[in-house]
Amino acid sequence: MHNIKLSIIIPCYNTEIKTLKRCLDSLSFLPDITPCEIIVVDDGSTKKDIIGYLKERNESHIRAIRQENMGCGGARNTGIENSS
């Protein structure tokens, strides 16, 4: 991605897929308005389906990161470190 103007970081821990879908769908208009990236950080969920769901969506502006559980602050920091 070039010239990213907006980075959105979404920390997740055992989040239901339907909730994540609603969140991402509510942001779907953004790539049409401004160059953006959405970084979803799976913070050590015991459910392994978050990353699989994001791969199925196959949207170039959405990136997924899985990490050991570090809490919400740790997940946000990981997202910041990996943002453009």
Shape: globular
Show unreliable segments: none
- Give the neighbour order of strands across the main sheet: 1-2-3
Q: State the distance separating the first and last CA atoms.
A: 8 Å
Number of helices: 4
Order of helices and strands: EHHEHEH
Mean pLDDT: 92
Biggest beta-sheet profile? 3 strands, parallel
- Strand-pairing-aware structural class: alpha/beta
Calculate Rg over CA atoms. 12 Å
Indicate the proportion of strand residues.
Answer: 25-35%
Helix percent band: 40-55%
Summarize the topology:
Elements: E1 6-12, H1 17-26, H2 30-33, E2 36-43, H3 49-57, E3 62-67, H4 71-81
Parallel strand pairs: 1-2, 2-3
Describe the model.
- The structure is a single chain.
- This protein has a three-stranded parallel β-sheet with strand order 1-2-3, with helices on both faces.
- The chain is globular and about 35 Å long.
- The longest helix has 11 residues, at 71-81.
- It is α/β, with parallel strands linked by helices.
- The chain has four helices and three strands.
- The protein has helices spanning 17-26, 30-33, 49-57, 71-81, and strands spanning 6-12, 36-43, 62-67.
Give structural attributes.
84 residues; alpha/beta; three-stranded parallel sheet; 4 helices; 40% helix
Please summarize what this structure is.
The chain is of the alpha/beta class and 84 residues long. It is built from four helices and three strands, in the order βααβαβα.
